[in-house]
Structure formats: structure tokens, C-alpha cells
Amino acid sequence: MDQTLPAPLQHEHMLFPEGLHLECGVHLAPVQVAYRTYGTLSAARDNAIIVCHALTGDQYLAERHPLTGKPGWWSRMVGPGLPIDTDRFFVICMNVLGGCMGSTGPRSPRGGEGPGLEPRRVEPWGTEFPPITIRDMVRAQKLVIDRLGIARLFAVIGGSMGGMQVLEWAATFPDMVFAAMPIATSPFHSAQNIAFNEVSRQAIFADPEWHGGRYWEREAIPARGLAVARMMAHITYLSEEALTRKFGRRTRRDPYGPANPLSLFGEMFEVESYLRHQGSSFVRRFDANSYLTITRAMDYFDLGADHDGDLSRPFHGTRTRFCIVSFSSDWLFPTTQARSLARALNRAAANVSFVEIESDKGHDAFLLDEPDFDRTVRGFLSGAAEHARIG
Amino acid sequence: MDQTLPAPLQHEHMLFPEGLHLECGVHLAPVQVAYRTYGTLSAARDNAIIVCHALTGDQYLAERHPLTGKPGWWSRMVGPGLPIDTDRFFVICMNVLGGCMGSTGPRSPRGGEGPGLEPRRVEPWGTEFPPITIRDMVRAQKLVIDRLGIARLFAVIGGSMGGMQVLEWAATFPDMVFAAMPIATSPFHSAQNIAFNEVSRQAIFADPEWHGGRYWEREAIPARGLAVARMMAHITYLSEEALTRKFGRRTRRDPYGPANPLSLFGEMFEVESYLRHQGSSFVRRFDANSYLTITRAMDYFDLGADHDGDLSRPFHGTRTRFCIVSFSSDWLFPTTQARSLARALNRAAANVSFVEIESDKGHDAFLLDEPDFDRTVRGFLSGAAEHARIG
Known about the structure:
The structure is a homodimer. Chain A is of the alpha/beta class. The first copy, chain A, folds into two domains: 13-188 and 306-388, Rossmann fold (3-Layer(aba) Sandwich); 195-293, Rna Polymerase Sigma Factor, Chain: A (Orthogonal Bundle), CATH 1.10.1740. Chain A has helices at residues 134-147, 161-172, 191-205, 223-237, 240-246, 270-283, 288-300, 335-347, 371-388; strands spanning 13-16, 20-21, 27-28, 31-38, 48-52, 78-79, 84-85, 90-94, 153-159, 177-183, 251-253, 267-269, 321-327, 351-357. An eight-stranded mixed sheet of chain A has the order 1-4-8-5-9-10-13-14, with helices on both faces. The first copy, chain A, has a two-stranded antiparallel sheet with strand order 2-3. In chain A, α2 (161-172) links the parallel β9 and β10. The longest helix of chain A has 18 residues, at 371-388. The first copy, chain A, is globular. The interface between A and B is large, with 55 and 55 residues.
């Protein structure tokens, strides 16, 4: 169907007309990767760090976000003099394949995005976007790194789904990764996490504005389903302690509640109001089909699966230096999973350190102010830079 | 609006035309309470045990369920020779106020259920059903107990929301409760649990068949929203270990997935299939407005709130014998919350024992086969019966 889409935001990007052969067997072409960089690539091209974003993150790592106007999601970590020091390192952050901030994904026009096409007059992929994997995401990132003429990355760093990409980078392109820092992540997605993602997807499918995934034809957004998905996910990102500390059982008047003063329902708990806000602000910046595509990629992530379940085998012979970080109150990616990764790397005789940060902030701790974590990142990068003999 | 409702199941019940003055200030009349009993009330009327059901349970405790055809939800615990021994005790289980299995609730006709009315020709309460509390539920149960001529209950037992009712029974009618066994429960609903309930409610509101809560006018059911709510709740009832043991990352063909053999999405994880089944079977037996009413009652439960947060005060001077049970892998009602209850009862100089059962089955452990738990129930009741001098 011929369809006029809203004018997209212009994101800095690279276009790869030859595309990418995906793990599912589909050849996706062209492929576009949107990215942002911070700092300066050294003459020796040896100071590049990829930061990989999580499920709902994007490439606007350390600057004002063009849609929300908020500071970048890791502004406290990446910048001049900060733990990931842009006076010293060249930092690249790329929107994942399947995303909705400028990289090829379900919202991309199916006919391609090349200069010879009219991208605003063709049908988007929608639900027919091919299924992608974490490895596909990493291989799309490698196209960018190759074009930048970077033969070896100084480091790859990321939390949550970003950490899955870090592991995939180190497993798939071991000679290109000098140092790897997988944070608050796991070498496989657990049954519980798959279950939560499945509820998210069902919430989106249940929305009347979903229209079988062709919501863009109706100029609609499955906003309520997406908000429910986000609200639920948000609970899993926080610890019970963090929720109790932030909100406890405090109540406030519900502006949409019944006027009857006798009604207990006239007030709501603050945690409800917070979640509703989280849900409604999310739908303004995220595409439902991208959410489905990316959660599926997470669910299929299982680094040992191609190696008879032996998690050490993808890392045999690796010379990459690893620093694995977990947070004590993270129940979505608990320390037990990080520890199984550390053990596998030890079995592979890799150079690996493992740090569990004491925190009551839950999974989101990697995005929040945790001085011990900042010191860990700074220390690992400084030590690795010394070994790599970077400026 | 004059409205024909489907013929309701006939549940054994008592009708109280005088009704009940609810905590919200509304006088609800008449009130009907549906119940089932097992065993025989002794001549001295001293062997009665109330078993309180959880959020989505009902009075069909130890017999085939009239809607689902499945065994009662605690058939393994209640019966002749079982831990709650119906050869010895008279067991009563009542559908909670606000429920949908015969007690007065949102599906009840607003005009009343008395013999002078035509219950199938009047409008149901729906969303205008007054908000109820756990204490209201208990006071409705007391109407039944009074009519049965029982002055003192030998015991009140229940898990999860059932445990909240146990605590409310002991706090509100201390002289009527000889022994109390709150299981897998908490003296207040936590911020995390309120948050999960709020997501459930938003999932129901997001369903196109919700129709502002007047779905019965359209002969509709907000089935997808209710299923999403149930799926999410179901994850919280299990532990991560239990999900991993039951399903791990095993996959199967998705009967509704794309036919494309290249597609990763052609298969689904077994845990997804299981959750979808849980969701779809639930909507056939539960009313959405009841779900909203009862989750709200749980959220408002905070036993210390009327006592400046001092949880011991509702129990000062109590002579009830308490046995508190928690399960080590229950993260919805964790042992820490049970322990705070035990400490409060100790401060109130109550007779209290506290048992944490080692189990990897999560919150649902109280419904499942846990021999240590069975022994605890049997032992506590036997000891208490000796003290109460029951046959």
C-alpha cells in the first residue's frame, strides 16, 4: 500500500547498500546504521570504544536526546574527565539493528532507503521485518567499524542487552576486541526473562490499535499496550528495596479517580502514578514493532547454544581482557548468571575479573549514580589502556 | 439499563438482607456469602476452621470445581486424614466479598438478590461496586460464622491474600480465633506488589472489550487484558528456579507462528505457551471487575496503618496462637515480610512460632506438594487442638 509516513527525524547514519545476511537466512539490504560519536579517533585508530545500548536505549549516549530533550542515558559516565573519558577515548554508540532511532528496523521503508528511492512513499516493514539476533546487531555494528577503518576496538562496553552485544562481539570477533565489559547481563536469557518479555508482547497484541501490526496504516499507535509492557518491564528494572525507598505505600489524590470522597479509590499510590508516567512517556519515543523485534532477539540469546551448552567454547583462545560487573540487588540479571559467565571464561583461560557491586537499586543501577561502579569502569579502562599502550 | 445476564451458577450461600457497613462508608445490602463446608461441626461447635482463599481462588477448596472440572485448589491439604483433617475438623471456605463465585461482588445485580427481586433482570454493579477492604471481607465471613452459631473458631488458615484475612480475623475478632496460620503473606502490601497489581489493572483497562467496565452490556469480556494480567501475575507466583526447572529455554513449534521455515519466530519457548494457556483458561472463570476490586483490597491492606505504623498494637493482649509460614524462594511475599510480622507479634507478647520452609517453588509453594509444609500444618493444628481440648 502506498503510504505517507510522518517525516522522520534525521539521524547521523551510514548506509550499506550491500546489506547483511541475517542469521535467519534472510538477506537484508540495504542496511542503515545510525550512530553518534564522542571524542576523537587517534591517528593510530587505537582508542575506539563501542558502547552498546540496552533494549529501549539508543545512540544518544552523552548528549541531549532529540526527541525527549533529556540528557543522554549515560551522560554521567561518558564525557571529558568522566570514567569513559572522551578526552582520551573515541566513543561510538550505534542504534541497534531492529531499532527505531535511525537504524534499519520495522519502521524502515521496505523498499529501501537508498538515494534512488523515495523513502517517505513506501510501505514500512512492520511485523514482516525479519527476526534478528544479537549477533546480527553486532555484525551491523561491525560494518560501521570497518568503514571507519578501525581494525581493533580498544573496548566494547554495555549493560543489560548491551552486555549481550559485548559478549557477542568478543565471541564473534575476538581479535577485534582488546577489552570487554559486560555489565548487568547474562550469557543467555532466562526462562523468567523470556516470560516477562512474552507478557510484554501479549500486552501489545491486546491493544485495539495494534491492528495486526499494521498500525501505521491507520496512523495509530498501540500506546496502551506498549505502556503496559513498559510499566511491567520497569518494575523488573528496580529492586523491591528501591521501590520501597522511593514510594513505599505513600498515596496521593488520583486526578482521574471518582469524585466520591467516601471512595477508597479516590486516591492512588505514588508508585502507580510513577508507573503510568513511565508508560506514557515511553510510547512517544518507541515503536511497538521494534519492541517486539528486540525482545525476541534477547529471548533467543544463548551464547552456549551453538557449543552444546558449553559456554567456555566460544571464548577458547581469546586474548580479550574481560571485566564482568553485576549488581547485588539485580533480580532480572542476577549475580548467579554473571558468575556462570565468569566461570566459563575462567575455563577458557581468559583474562577475566568479576565485580559484584553492592547496590540496592536493582537492574537499573548501571544507569544510576553508583560511585563504586564508576570507579570500577575507570579502573578497568585505565589498566587496559596501559596494557594496550594507548596515549 | 434493563439487562439479561447469563444464568449464574447456583452456589451454596447465605443471604444477609441487613447487609454490611463497609469501611469506605457505603452500606452494602443485601450481602450474600457463598461457601462450602467439609467435615462435621461438633456438638460443642468448637472444631471449626476457616480456610481463606487467595486472589483468584474460591470456596471450592476440596472438591471438583463446578466451572473448570479440576480438583479443589487445596484438595491435597484438606480432607479425611489430610493435614487439615476433615474427620476431626469442620472446615468452612467462603468466596470473598467482591468475588465472582456467588458472594456479593461487581457481577451481583445492583438491585439486590433477595427473593422479592428478579436477579436476572437488573443491572450488575460493575465498576460502581464500592471499594472493599480485607477487613470488609472478614466481616462478611463473620456474618456466616455468627449464623452458624460458632462463638469461637478453632483456627483460621490461609495463604497469600488468604493470609491477610487470617491476620485481619485475629486483629479484629481476637477472642474468636484460637489459632491462626498466616502463610506466604505480609502484614502490608509492598510497593512492588502494588506496582504489579497496577500493571494488571492497566492491562485490563487497555482491552478494547473493557468498555469502561460496562463490558457486560455488550456481552463482552476483556479477555485479552485479563489474560495479560494473569500471565504477569503468574510469573510472580513462581520462582526463577521453578521456571528454569519447568521450562528452561526449551522451544516448540508455534502453531500460530509464520510458516516461513527461515523465520526464528516459527518456534516459541515452552514458557510462553504455558503462560498463554494460563491466561486463556483464567478468563473463562474470573470477572474483570472482581479482579480490580480484589487487587485494590490487597493494595490497601496495611495492618499497622491505623496504629501509627506499629504492627504490634493490633495484637496487644491477644491469646491467639500464631504459626507464621514463609517459603524461601517466595519473592512476592518474601520471608523478610513474614519475619517483620513475627517480630511484631513477639513485641505484643503473643504466642507465635515462625517457620521458613526451604522450597524452590516460589510463592505458589503453599499450593503445591511440599512435605515439610504439610508436616508444619498438621503439627500446628494437632498441638493447638490438644490445648483447645478438641476431640
